[in-house]
Amino acid sequence: MGERERFFIKQYIHSHRIFVDGDDGTGHSYLQATYGRFGTSYLVAGRYDDKYHRTPDGWRFTEMTIEFDYTVPAGVGWSGDALHYLDPKNLPSDIKRP
Fold this sequence. Notes:
Elements: E1 7-21, E2 24-37, E3 40-55, E4 58-73
Antiparallel strand pairs: 1-2, 2-3, 3-4
């Protein structure tokens, strides 16, 4: 989502659904976030899709993906013509992609 100078994000993850099949599982949850970058506030929403596996140390994520519904400046809102002002494909190198 871009460079991290003057970066702030607060994520709200909700509506978790988890399905277990033996030692494996899948799940999804929804994301709403407030994001600040270079003095601009953004509204972010999307959905996480996860896969899990039970290990001797407990359940662990084996895969996590996200699909963004919108990443828009707060002043523009999510009802405008453009839904993505932040490009999640240009993540900084320290953020791992699924």
